[in-house]
Amino acid sequence: MQGNGSMTLIAQISDLHVQIPGKLAYGVVDTNSLVAEAIARLSRLNPQPDIVVASGDLIQDGTLAEYELLKVMLAPLQCPIYLMPGNHDHRDHLRQVFDTHTYLPDESDHLSYVVEGYPMRLVMLDTIIPGKGGGCADTERLIWLEQQLLAAPQTPTMLFMHHPPFATGIPWMDRKRFQGHGALAALIRQHPQVKRISCGHLHRTIYCPWAGTVASSQPSLVHQSALDFTPDSSSQFVMEPPAYQLHVWTDETLVSHTLYVGQFDGPYRFVDGKKVVAARL
Ligand SMILES: [Fe+2]
Q1: How far is the CA of 10 from the centre of ligand 1 (A)?
Q2: What is the chain's pLDDT, residue by residue, as a tens digit (281 residues)?
Q3: For residues 42, 57, 235 and 219, what is the CA-based torsion angle, rounded to 10 degrees?
Q4: Which CATH superfamily is domain 8-277 in?
Q5: Hey, where are the domains in the chain?
Q6: Is residue 89 classed as helix, strand or coil in its secondary structure?
Q7: Ligand 1 centroid to 189 CA: how many Å?
Q8: 250 CA to middle of ligand 1, Å?
Q9: Rounded to the nearest whole angstrom, what is the distance from the C-alpha of residue 281 to the centroid of ligand 1?
Q10: Ligand 1 centroid – CA 121 distance (Å)
Q11: Are β-strands 206-210 and 213-217 bridged in parallel, bridged antiparallel, or unpaired?
């Protein structure tokens, strides 16, 4: 199933917040056009990713109409895409519209699943609490996760979750701490095959050591959260560039690259000391 020689390329897009046409996030952000541009750029990547992971907040209000629109918007992607729910998502509506995505469990309350067949194993843990903004790993999900990790202790693994389990140091982000982070950390420490925990939700690129591995949150595909360490800060968005990440597994290590979405001059290369414009990416 691997299409990139000894590498496995995993593109991760997060927090798309697709909406009914004409609606703007916060009355300002045209999320749909930004998602469309990102998908177009992702479709032109050479080589193509082996897998695309969409790590939650796929849509804004959880309606069937939004998921139908999302389905159309994702259609240009040629590589397999794996969808995860975030706090803006509606599990049943997601399942209903993406009924051909047979990796989504039919009967479980949580949409957790495992992607196998690649050198790197992907474990997708649904962390949502319906009706709430924050996330959790409750007993049921911790048991499920332990079973999955025990099934392949020697296989390098990425754990994807919508909600990051770590504290960021940004006061407003940390007011809703991930429920069950201590138990989750204890479990992860027993499984060194987990090379990364990669999340969404925060709309900001953040990395930290956590539970013996590296944990991170992804940039959003549409708008970012403002960096504000003041104690009484509150949630603010900022139009820093939309971005996604490309994770590269090389049988030795996992490296992540950030790709910004937008129109930028270049890339330039140099021939006989002269600047030459290469084909636009
Ligand atoms: Fe989000």
Answers
A1: 20
A2: 446 767 899 999 999 999 999 999 888 899 999 999 999 999 999 999 999 999 999 999 999 999 999 999 999 999 999 999 999 999 999 999 999 999 999 888 899 999 999 999 999 999 999 999 999 999 999 999 999 999 999 999 999 999 999 999 999 999 989 999 999 999 999 999 999 999 999 999 999 999 999 999 999 999 999 999 999 989 899 999 999 999 999 978 999 999 999 888 888 888 887 877 765 55
A3: -20
A4: Metallo-dependent phosphatases (3.60.21.10)
A5: 8-277
A6: coil
A7: 28
A8: 30
A9: 27
A10: 25
A11: antiparallel
